[in-house]
Predict the structure.
Amino acid sequence: MMQEARINSDMASEHRELKNRPSEELGFFLVASNRELLNHVEALMNRQGVFGVLDSSGRVHYLVDARKGSPLAARNVMATADGIARKNCRDTRNERRRVRALVDRVLSRYEWNTQLRGYRLLGEILRRTATDISLLNPISKRLYPEIAKQQGLRPHQIERNVRYLFDDLASREKAAQLRPGNQLLRKGENSLPVGRTITRLSEEVWSELDTFELGEVEDSD
């Protein structure tokens, strides 16, 4: 009976740990050839006001030690939080720049009238769908309302401006008779369906993102 109760208690503890575990964790592994090196690392951490706590899974979590004074603990907490916040901001800015550059690269393949309002709206649409594919299903339900709210317009105005942009491009492509690789208009068609065309352009952006990320992985190797 006591053994069953102990098992139930262990299971409950494990459940609480899994439930309270954050969705994202930052960790690292330290590989050392001897215990002396590990002790040296631990001593360095302790001098910074940080100590390790072993959890039920055998992992060591380093915590800020407030026993060396609350000012030091507060400084360590603030320094860590500030460093993480700065890194997150840099990563977010870099990601936005990268997405913007790749969207511009995709749009530059076609003969748009860049003076039309729809061109600016299309760029914003592609930047949104580059990071959230679910916005395409369906376009009119979430994507148009979000862009409209940002731009101070109504959803039907977004669709109207983008449709006019696509109609203008279709006319340009028919008049120029460009090679198939340089146009969005399919053979035998006279217009560009809004939903299908946005999806195609979004797929081109995703392809550029995949190529970029693959290049980063290869560079890191």
The chain has seven helices and two strands.
